[in-house]
Amino acid sequence: MGKTQVNERPRMGRAPATTHGELSHIAVALFLERGFEETTVDDIVEAAGIGRRTFFRYFRSKNDLPWGDFDRLLDQMRGHLAALPTDLPLRDALRLAVIEFNRFPTDEIPVHRERMWLLLNVPTLMAHSTLRYAEWRQVIAEFVAERLHQSADSLEPQAIAWACLGLSIASYEQWLSHEDADLLLLIDEAFRRASATWGAQS
């Protein structure tokens, strides 16, 4: 199917998509319909009614599209962690922060399910996700390091950050496998079971 020439002017009769969320939604729909590798940036900007320069003001690459406005979400998680009471046990602080990070409006959940399916099943996206996971883990590690009066790159904060990521991914895999499952309840259960199995972490 031929491509129309793409420029910075939106198509008549359609408001251009100009937020991280809108562009991410459009891209996820195209990835599911056509396949990730088969969908080009030109396909996405054409569907969004924008130009390539506008696209690259929002996303560095096609691989970043399923992540939406991930940097903003990381900033929110930092803020949430910083606002938690200092006497709250570390295990509870991490559990609550990860739950809050993964809380989405009800009408966003179907798209989020599709987004996560892509991230956990498309090889190119799985490889790219290591970069995003590293950014997410670093937020956790920095918080843990401050609580434990250690360096963020020392073993204990890094190990705990990796554990939090593993619990989150395991919860997502269960969620994607069971359409009636509640993601936040799965995350809560995973963290509580890990605490019970490994013992309380001060």
UniProtKB/TrEMBL annotation:
GO MF entries: DNA-binding transcription factor activity; transcription cis-regulatory region binding
Domain (HTH tetR-type): residue spans on this chain: 17-77
DNA-binding region listed in the record: 40-59
The keyword Transcription regulation is annotated on this UniProt entry: yes
Record has Disulfide bond as a keyword: no
Keyword line: DNA-binding, Transcription, Transcription regulation
Gene3D superfamilies in the cross-refs: Homeodomain-like, Tetracycline Repressor, domain 2
InterPro entries according to UniProt: DNA-bd_HTH_TetR-type_CS (IPR023772), Homeodomain-like_sf (IPR009057), HTH-type_TetR-like_transc_reg (IPR050109), HTH_TetR (IPR001647), MftR_C (IPR041347), Tscrpt_reg_TetR-type (IPR023851)
PANTHER family: HTH-TYPE TRANSCRIPTIONAL REGULATOR RUTR (PTHR30055), MYCOFACTOCIN BIOSYNTHESIS TRANSCRIPTIONAL REGULATOR MFTR-RELATED (PTHR30055:SF238)
Protein name: Mycofactocin system transcriptional regulator
The species this protein was found in: Microbacterium schleiferi
Gene behind this protein: mftR
